[in-house]
TrEMBL record:
GO aspect biological process, one term: inner dynein arm assembly
Record's protein name: CS domain-containing protein
Disordered, as annotated region: 180-228
Domain of life: Eukaryota
InterPro entries: CS_dom, Dynein_assembly_factor_4, HSP20-like_chaperone
Lineage: Eukaryota, Metazoa, Ecdysozoa, Arthropoda, Hexapoda
Biased composition (Basic and acidic residues): 189-211
PANTHER family per record: DYNEIN ASSEMBLY FACTOR 4, AXONEMAL, DYNEIN AXONEMAL ASSEMBLY FACTOR 4
Domain CS, residue spans: 3-87
Species, as recorded: Lygus hesperus (Western plant bug)
Alphabetical list of Pfam families matching this protein: CS
Length: 228
């Protein structure tokens, strides 16, 4: 059977209720605290403090502090009003029902917090995935840009080389033909160089031969002497 703590004190402001509970030389690590909108409790065996609050508090804005051998409940009022008393009188069954409601309220609160954390975690993961995909897309785009740049540079170099080859063809072609010629042909050209003055066309040669034949026919035969 726990020892009920009745030597507590409390005070209030327009928005806050302060409850001070002595620890009776118990260590803070031995204290189990519980708060809800209508019920608060501090259990440090063998001692127990609990209070069914006369008015509602905002549990999310309330807190507990352990210092100087005391527990301080700093409770934020739901409505800014003066409380007539800290607690209200309840039957045993009403107190049990209030505790069950407080436990269900706390369970729902933690379940809601857990769901919110799960949603936030999912959103962070989605954001990370989106960021990763964006970075991956940028990396692929950068690789593609580099490929296009290399392709453009290679095409430009090829066109420059092609242009240079075309400009030098008039100079390089005769040299290339000479290098491809047979050695005998190159030697013949060197021993018997062509002379434009010794070249006649076929018609001129034919006319010259006909003239020589006519002259031979017109030339009288040589005289022969008869013997005496």
């Amino acid at each position: 059977m726990p020892l009920i703590v009745n030597d507590y004190t409390w005070s209030q402001t327009d928005s806050l209720v302060i409850v001070k509970v002595p620890l009776h030389k118990k260590l803070p690590r031995d204290v189990d605290l519980f708060t809800s909108s209508k019920y608060i409790k501090a259990h440090f065996p063998p001692y127990l403090f609990e209070a069914a609050l006369s008015e509602e508090i905002v549990e999310e804005n309330s807190k507990c502090v352990l210092r100087d051998g005391h527990i301080l409940f700093l409770l934020a009022k739901r409505e800014n009003m003066t409380w007539a008393s800290l607690t209200k009188e309840l039957t045993k069954q009403e107190l049990i029902r209030l505790k069950e409601e407080a436990i269900a309220e706390t369970h729902n609160k933690f379940e809601k917090m857990s769901n919110e954390k799960a949603i936030q975690k999912s959103q962070r993961q989605s954001a990370c995935v989106s960021k990763h995909l964006a970075l991956e897309g940028e990396a692929k785009a950068e690789i593609q840009r580099k490929k296009e740049t290399l392709k453009t540079n290679a095409l430009t170099d090829f066109m420059e080389w092609k242009k240079t080859e075309t400009d030098d063809s008039s100079t390089l072609l005769p040299l290339w033909k000479k290098l491809q010629a047979k050695p005998s042909e190159m030697q013949s050209d060197e021993e018997h160089p062509k002379d434009d003055h010794l070249i006649f066309d076929d018609e001129s040669i034919k006319t010259k031969k006909e003239t020589q034949n006519i002259n031979k026919k017109l030339k009288p035969p040589p005289k022969t002497e008869k013997p005496l």
